[in-house]
What we know:
Elements: H1 12-61, H2 63-67, H3 71-82, E1 87-94, E2 99-102, H4 120-123, E3 138-143, E4 146-156, H5 159-162, E5 175-184, H6 186-237, H7 252-340, H8 345-374, E6 383-385, H9 387-405, E7 407-412, E8 420-422, H10 424-440, E9 446-455, E10 460-467, H11 474-477, H12 497-507, E11 511-517, E12 521-529
Parallel strand pairs: 7-9
Antiparallel strand pairs: 1-2, 1-5, 3-4, 4-5, 6-8, 9-10, 10-12, 11-12
Helix pairs in contact: 1-6, 6-7, 7-8, 8-12, 9-10, 10-12
Amino acid sequence: MRKTQPKIRTSLALKLGLCLAASTVTIFGLFGFSMIALHQRESESLVLASADRIGDIIQRSTRYQMLHNDREALYQVIRDIGSEPGLVRIRIFNEEGRISFSTDPNEVGKVVDKSAEACYGCHAKEAPLTRLNRPDRTRIFEENGQRVLAQIRPIENEPACSNGACHAHPPSQQILGVIDSQLSLQPVDLQIARHQQVLMYSTAGAVALMTLISLIFVWVVLHRPVQELITGTHRVAGGDLGHRLRVHSQDELGDLAESFNQMTEELARALEELSARADTLEEHVEEKKRELEHAQTVLLGSEKYASLGKLAATVAHEVNNPLFGILTYARLGRKQLAETGVSGPAAAQLDEQLQVIERESRRCGEIMRNLLTFARQAPSRRDRSNLNELVQRAVTLVRHQLELQGIALETDYAADLPPVACDPGQIQQATLVLLVNAYEAMPQGGSLRVATAFDAATGEAIIRVKDTGSGIPAEVLGSIFEPFFTTKEEQQRTGLGLAVAKSIIEQHGGRVLVDTRPGEGTEFRFVLPLHAAELQPAGGAA
């Protein structure tokens, strides 16, 4: 795996400072270079003007000697002028390029090399010498390690000269010769060098000063606020939402600092809200967990009840016909025994046996009816019924048994209870199951409270049956609604009572609730909607 090289981090202030420094150096460098070039051109122009004046002075000073062909006087004047400081040489050469006079005696009589650096500037021009402008008659070349500015000035064949008795030049010859004045540029170069050095030092000082000012400006105006912003960001990222930035200016950085402070304030407020919600989140999670566990338990029970319901429906259908035949033949046998008039111990014993067959057949038939009810095979008839009357009927059926066992009965029927859409017989049967279980839980006497109520908020009717028995043990509480589960040891108990009651209530779209405390008693509640549609019960057959 290829390792990633760490990136070199450069601060924004450093980048901006370097940019300002580079810009300052560039601007001042260009300015200094242009000033040096301008100064050099101005100095050369002054030298050029001086050379032109010297040529003019020579021509005017020697005009008389030339007209009278006084060569000694002419040469002396040129030698006097050529002795001035800064003049390298002054020479005169004819149209053929031969030097007729020079302040340097070694050059006299020599022919000028027109292709040399000192001459090709003029001879490269196509225009005649008389038509060349002053800059075109000037050239700069190096000699003996120094620069030399030379200017040629043509000696024209004036009428006064061509008509003179001493001259033999025809009037058609325009140029008689050339005065070549050469001035040293060394003083100019030294002055330019001094100015260049001064300008360089001045530029370097200005650059250093401007760079320092720029860096101080960047540090105060940009670097410090940005660093405070970065530090604040790191502190907020570390959890310090109470950190605030100081607003130093009323510009973009100031707006950024204010926005940062506003953001941290909103983050702190959001964190408080999240913390408040987190306190209750665990409770919601636990509540949902309990609901899911309950739903899972109900689902598993529903699957088990569905299987049992299918089995119960099948068994009830298959067993009902043989039971009916047994019951019918038991009754027929007793009838025929009575009609024969046979008496005696054998007849009595036979009649008793037939009674046992008839009684047990009826009990088996009752079990089959309960199985069919649990499996939802028995049809239900829904009417709008008075729930108080149905509960009262069930109480009437057990009132005598309550009195025999010394159980005090307390009833409390809600006067504002609306009619409930239900099967009256099934609701009465389910209520009777609760009453029977209640007095069986109090064999030594106790107190039984039966009540009805109406919850207007949910639109549900409630039937309450509360006893003061021994309560339901925790280990069997989860199994009391299972079919065939019973804690009674009597053989006549089938364990279908609560399972059937729960099946009936669920068929009506209701639910069964249980509150029990060992040693204090148990309360069952049937919760029924006022307008319930026919629903498939959890234990019904498919």
